[in-house]
What does this fold into?
Amino acid sequence: MAHYKIAWLPGDGIGKDVLEAARIVLDKIQLDAEYIPGDIGWEFWCKEGDAFPPRTIELLKNVDAALFGAITSKPVKAAATELSPGLQNRGLTYRSPIVRMRQLFDLYVCLRPCKAYPGNGLNFKEGIDLVVFRENTEDLYAGVEFSPVPPDLAQVLKTLAKPFAPFAALPADQYAVSCKINTRAGSERIARAAFEFARKFKRKKVTIIHKANVVRATDGLFLEEAKNVAKEFSEIQVDDANIDAMTMWLLKNPFNYDVLVAPNLYGDIISDLCAQMVGGLGFGCSGNIGAKLAVFEPTHGSAPKYAGQYKVNPIATILAVKMMLDGLGETGKAASLERAVAEVIKEGKVRTYDMGGANTTLEMAKAIAAKL
Ligand SMILES: NC(=O)c1ccc[n+]([C@@H]2O[C@H](COP(=O)([O-])OP(=O)(O)OC[C@H]3O[C@@H](n4cnc5c(N)ncnc54)[C@H](O)[C@@H]3O)[C@@H](O)[C@H]2O)c1
It folds into this structure.
């Protein structure tokens, strides 16, 4: 029996191409693992009315980790029209399987390392090495949303919140409400994860990202909890910044930053910015980590226009494999894989289209495997 069970979730579009590439390096590195395929994505929404079927949820309860490609998501109304005829008008509502997975398995850490590998022509600046900790289950992604707004909710808001007055007279279908919900426990644990990472890897500084001057209740709570956690890590510098200022400072002085921690939405925004500074979507990798399960993925989506063409860059997914190896405690294999990626980038002989070359997804994976 293999030592590890890994759920293998290619999903849609280029998710299939990049996971095929990931398998080339995993086979070369000889991880003692069984890869168990799982159904997820658009095909299952259309055929079964569920993009994240119960059998895949069961699979994820019984694995050591999961590698995920990408899924296609569409707005609720467009999704409903693509259901197979027998499933139409049954009140089925599309929800992104990756967002559901994060909530169902309490994958509260979204870890996104953003490192500029030397010689990558796409680097914004050489030497950037940032790590983003994004809270992954709460905030504006809690899924508590109203459109149209029920009269009961409008009445309560009118009674409890003075600033609601300008909205109170609007018809229910002329506005919408999405609730930003942040808990003390959720804010504390993501901040703790960031500071513990900083301590373990001898990082100098943690920056707390928020907008507490305007979004006072929720971001105020997040900032307060994160600052409390910081007191236990006196050897690590701490500062905080508003999300808007942060985007500017990161571009201006990226070397002033090290580990960044943020609530869900700001973390999403900042991690795309950081990924772009180190080469863009072809290089952005991500770990969704909880107490019992961790799911690793490239940050990019399913890029339908390139699906099945083996054109896109698999490095993001191969770096997600490196994160998975670290997560499994296979740190030696993880380090070798990262060295192999860095060497191929530095040599610049094998390059996918985004790097200005014409090599295929699988050629890039084979070049990396050849260095192992
Ligand atoms: N986690 C996920 O699965 C995830 C994340 C984002 C978007 N999506 C979904 O993916 C679908 C397409 O979304 P999109 O087009 O906005 O974003 P996308 O990330 O799929 O692609 C945008 C563009 O980025 C480039 N790109 C993406 N990955 C690349 C790679 N590995 N190498 C080189 N270039 C790459 C391509 O030019 C592509 O057209 C949508 O349905 C969206 O909802 C899924």
About this structure: The radius of gyration is 22 Å. The first strand starts at residue 4 and ends at 11. The chain has 14 helices and twelve strands. Residues 184-200 form the longest helix (17 residues).
